[in-house]
């Protein structure tokens, strides 16, 4: 049995369609990521999965239980972490955890082993009020609170947004550890680089799924040859590339600019054209497409 | 229950809540009790004595001797009155006619003019009323002396329950009424809406807690704190304003509990329709404070209003509660005198509880499928 089965989920708010005919399934013990920009419909979809919203259309089950009709049985099996860390800012770390443990009918002691690797990092601050924690610590506390009742599935809505890079890396390591405990995890993020950490990912844009697959296969699905062009003056480089007829859709990417060449044009020709435009020393080389490139290509196809 | 404990932690860590909870009732009591008065004490008046005879002197002495007035000015001519009023301190001028005593003996009556500054109509009517009272008293004694033997009707007025017409007899039950509904509705609605704003409500809803458990957990602390407030107000009424409860305290507390329960369910109802704390505060104040103040009979007697307001005030819980606690506190009335109002209030409370429990959602938003 799959952990999640979703069929044709649609959610409308008046004339706006936040989630548009989305179907997917997540296997038990899988770490499944939803990747997409802000406003893509990730939060709405997660709230539907967490039994908080009844969708306008479609059906979704968790472990065979319908999120609409069986929400009572389901609620004790879900660990949900909303986009804004749902902590009581005027309660201390320990009081927050204790409160969430109690309302889910358990104690910190009972499931301490599950949260230990995470919680022991913030335990030195357990007497501090949650509002005074750093973003990374808040995130760990919120995750501990979502885990304290030993849920079968974790629903994490943008857990790494607003958190520093080191804490983000640590967080994904924690998730990998939880996956090994057999907990199914669905997680959403606007950061493309985090997609590589998931077993499978779904790309979502304007409420529609653009594709679902493993990160590797998503990257391989890129249909054309991709080149990375670099030059110290990145701004002039981008302007020059935009004016070249051989170049399709130049996109800045890290230190370089990713480009696709029209009709398999010769990269050497592009290099010469750039030198002619006063950008001598520009380097052009074929590169492996990232999730972002695939995302942009799929978006363009959609339009 | 962990929920109640958590709620108390919120309350005691937030200075603002504590101030609202305990500061406002005490402040209101003192403001209404001392500053806003409808009775008269030491009002400044002036006299223009054209008579300067024994009758006018005696009347002036009587005015001066009463607690109501201080004669702070003696005028010499009629022309000074306008300027005196414009200075603002003098509330009224009492004008005695020339040869008052002689006119009185010759014609059997004399006219004293009371000219009041009616830019403050309430004060003006109070001042003229009290002055006329003193005049009447005096002429009654005169009548007795002069025309002994003739039948005269002398009204002997006694103010039952409140012999000195003290206004805090009226205000204290009113303040309890107002403070209780405001506090209980305001604090519950704000504390529930705060959970929505901080996103913690999402997790509470996902938890196996049933809606009634969330509601009871949120509301119970405020129930006890409001009750505690009642006791503080009653003690203040007793020690500061010398107004003891004449009726049964147990009955009074029981009625207060019912009323608090109603305020709390009002708060829950408000919290189900707003998403922002500011809106909850605005709705509570606009929806409860103003009607509570104006249409409950707290300050303005409902009998004096057009009939339509009377009907509107019938759906205002504060009106019924005032009609319950005023008799209990001041007249010492027992349950047999207030059971009807209690029943109405209980009905309203039940209605509000059912309504707010039905509106309290188990999800973030409901969509018709």
Write up this protein.
The complex is a heterodimer of chains A (303) and B (369). Chain A has helices at residues 42-49, 71-75, 93-103, 112-122, 135-147, 165-180, 215-220, 234-243, 267-276, 291-302, and strands at residues 4-13, 16-26, 31-35, 57-62, 65-66, 78-81, 153-156, 184-189, 200-205, 208-213, 227-230, 247-253, 256-261, 283-286. Chain A has 303 residues and is an alpha/beta fold. Chain A has two domains: 4-215, Rossmann fold (3-Layer(aba) Sandwich); 227-287, Alpha-Beta Plaits (2-Layer Sandwich). In chain A, helix 3 runs parallel beside helix 5 and helix 4 (112-122) runs antiparallel to helix 5. The model of chain A has no long low-confidence stretch (mean pLDDT 87). Chain B has 369 residues and is α/β, with parallel strands linked by helices. Chain B has two domains: 2-36 and 166-359, no CATH class; 43-146, abc type-2 transporter like domain (abc type-2 transporter like fold), CATH 3.40.1710.10. Chain B is built from 14 helices and four strands. Chain B has a four-stranded mixed sheet, with helices on both faces. The mean pLDDT of chain B is 82. Chains A and B meet through helix 2 and helix 3 of A and helix 1 and helix 8 of B.
């Amino acid at each position: 049995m799959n952990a999640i089965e979703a069929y044709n989920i649609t959610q409308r708010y008046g004339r706006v369609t936040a989630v548009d005919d989305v179907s997917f399934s997540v296997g038990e013990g899988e770490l499944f990521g939803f990747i997409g920009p802000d406003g893509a419909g990730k939060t709405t979809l997660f709230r539907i999965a967490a039994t908080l919203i009844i969708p306008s259309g479609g059906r979704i089950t968790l472990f065979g239980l319908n999120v609409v009709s069986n929400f009572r049985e389901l609620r004790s099996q879900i660990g949900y972490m909303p986009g804004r860390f749902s902590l009581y800012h005027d309660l201390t770390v320990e009081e927050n955890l204790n409160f969430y443990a109690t309302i889910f009918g358990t104690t910190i002691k009972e499931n301490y082993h599950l949260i230990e690797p995470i919680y022991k990092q913030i335990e030195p601050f357990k007497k501090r009020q949650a509002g005074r924690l750093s973003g990374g610590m808040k995130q760990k506390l919120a995750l501990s609170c979502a885990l304290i009742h030993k849920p079968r599935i974790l629903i994490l809505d943008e857990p790494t947004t607003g958190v520093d890079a080191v804490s983000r890396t640590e967080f994904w390591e924690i998730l990998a550890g939880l996956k090994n405990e057999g907990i199914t995890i669905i997680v959403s993020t606007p950061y493309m680089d985090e997609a590589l950490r998931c077993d499978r990912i779904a790309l979502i844009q304007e409420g529609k799924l653009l594709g679902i697959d493993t990160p590797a296969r998503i990257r391989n699905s890129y249909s054309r040859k991709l080149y990375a062009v670099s030059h110290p003056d990145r701004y002039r480089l981008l302007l020059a590339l935009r004016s070249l007829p051989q170049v399709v859709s130049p996109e800045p990417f890290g230190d370089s600019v990713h480009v696709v060449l029209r009709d398999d044009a010769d990269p050497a020709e592009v290099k010469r054209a750039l030198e002619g435009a006063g950008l001598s020393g520009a380097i052009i080389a074929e590169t492996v497409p990232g999730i972002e490139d695939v995302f942009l290509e799929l978006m363009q196809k959609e339009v | 229950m962990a929920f109640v404990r958590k709620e108390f932690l919120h309350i005691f860590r937030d200075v603002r809540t504590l101030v609202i909870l305990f500061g406002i009732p005490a402040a209101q009591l003192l403001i209404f009790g001392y500053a806003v008065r409808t009775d008269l004490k030491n009002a400044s008046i002036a006299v223009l004595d054209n008579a300067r005879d024994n009758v006018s002197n005696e009347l002036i002495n009587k005015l001066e001797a009463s607690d109501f007035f201080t004669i702070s000015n003696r005028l010499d001519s009629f022309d000074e009155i306008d300027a005196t009023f414009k200075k603002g301190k003098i509330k009224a001028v009492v004008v005695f006619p020339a040869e008052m005593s002689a006119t009185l003996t010759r014609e059997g009556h004399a006219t004293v003019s009371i000219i009041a500054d009616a830019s403050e109509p309430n004060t003006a009517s109070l001042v003229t009323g009290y002055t006329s009272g003193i005049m009447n008293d005096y002429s009654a004694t005169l009548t007795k002396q002069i025309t002994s033997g003739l039948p005269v009707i002398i009204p002997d007025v006694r103010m039952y329950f409140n012999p000195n017409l003290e206004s805090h007899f009226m205000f204290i039950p009113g303040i309890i009424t107002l403070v209780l509904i405001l506090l209980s509705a305001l604090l519950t609605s704000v504390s529930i809406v705060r959970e929505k704003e901080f996103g913690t409500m999402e997790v509470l809803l996902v938890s196996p807690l049933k809606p009634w458990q969330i509601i009871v957990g949120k509301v119970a602390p405020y129930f006890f704190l409001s009750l505690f407030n009642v006791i503080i107000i009653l003690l203040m009424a007793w020690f500061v304003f010398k107004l003891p409860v004449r009726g049964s305290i147990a009955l009074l507390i029981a009625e207060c509990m019912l009323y608090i329960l109603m305020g709390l369910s009002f708060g829950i109802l408000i919290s189900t329709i707003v998403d922002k704390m500011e809106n909850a505060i605005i709705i509570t104040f606009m929806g409860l404070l103003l009607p509570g103040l104006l249409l409950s009979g707290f300050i303005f007697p409902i009998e004096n209003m057009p009939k339509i307001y009377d009907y509107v005030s019938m759906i205002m819980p504060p009106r019924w509660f005032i009609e319950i606690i005023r008799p209990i506190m001041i007249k010492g009335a027992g349950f047999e005198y207030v059971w009807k109002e209690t029943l109405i209030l209980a009905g309203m409370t039940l209605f509000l509880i059912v309504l707010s429990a039905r509106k309290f959602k188990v999800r973030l938003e409901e969509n018709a499928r």
